[in-house]
């Protein structure tokens, strides 16, 4: 739909502005160094990270052209501020600052102009091939203010609802800015007046509704009638229709496909883990020495955890408790002031430094940098019977950090409510995963630090 066009237009605006500003600043024979070139490449990549974080390309966003332009400008300025900060660390920053200033201004004007054109085109010509699909929504007994927000995550392509038909309404009204009607005749009038070609029926997966009356009403119109299955709000994942070996299927509960979209994550995990282990090797040696001197016993602590699809592996951590503190076959969560934790171990646990050896698990392919945190197998056996959809967390690789951790759900989970909140965050991550979401979580982990109030 519009998203690929917007991304392409934004890239052309930013790269074109970079070239024009380069010609302006470096036209008097001033040398354009290799450092300038590398920073230029970084400047082309950074905006699309900030655009992603600020949800510039988020579908189903019903906002005006002005709000969209402001969102783009804010994301662009953040990217340029980061680039300027990096630029000051290298020689020749004075001349380069003029280039970045020209680049920022020219690209800002180009982005506003490009966004305005893209925003206006669909309204000028509604048959434009890349215009969002205009649909009528049939939502029996379910139309409410949260309807569109509920539909949005379950549909992959952008759309524009023009009317909502709900026969249970007491009278015609509006939901947001969208007219909602209660009679079939009124629906027919709007569909034909607006020349709509799509009718989507929002249908509970386990409560099928009759659609014969719609077929009869629109049998002579060239209108596509589609059923959009919606899982109940208590379901763990959003339903999705996919092609499985040539057969269209509706996923109710299934492991996310390991397709080409996951390749960047797999490559990043290995490269990032190797780079981190090399970079922090002096810190690892210092911690290992501190652990060894703190109390008798091994430096590392190994414990069985479940990985993707429930496969058990041994997780690596620095030992933080006295040797033999736990009884065989039992695992008790550490609490505040726990006598089993050594003095060095208390510091390691509160700062999460005891987790650093898990980059070895990432390097081995047993874990990911970002994903749901794995729990002790004994804890899994308990929580799977008391927390709904608990085991769905293991449909993907566990991680060193995750969406739950950056949202404050780390450390001790003494109350069931805390574990439920953590599981809810993990399920949200699984449903909305993207490579850029991983980058956001890593950034938030670094920005918020490793210290947690509930980590003992």
TrEMBL record:
GO terms for molecular function: undecaprenyl-phosphate glucose phosphotransferase activity. It is a multi-pass membrane protein. InterPro entries: Bact_transf (IPR003362), EPS_sugar_tfrase (IPR017475), Undecaprenyl-P_gluc_Ptfrase (IPR017473). It is found in: Membrane. It is an enzyme of class 2 (transferase). Its EC number is 2.7.8.31. The keyword Transmembrane applies. The keyword Transcription regulation does not apply. The chain crosses the membrane at residues 38-57, 69-87, 99-118, 271-291. It holds the Pfam family CoA_binding_3. Belongs to the bacterial sugar transferase family. This is Undecaprenyl-phosphate glucose phosphotransferase. It comes from Paraburkholderia azotifigens.
